Amino acid sequence: MVDYKKVRELKKEEAAYLAGIIDGEGTVTLTRRNRNDQRQLAVTVSSTDRHLLEYVLQIVGVGKITNKRMNRSNHSPAYTYQLSNRQALSLLKQIAPFLRTYKRDRARVVLDGYLKVTPRNGKYSTEMLGAKEKFNSAFFAFSSPNAKRLE
Question: What structural domains and CATH numbers belong to the chain?
Answer without folding.
Answer: 12-140 (3.10.28.10)
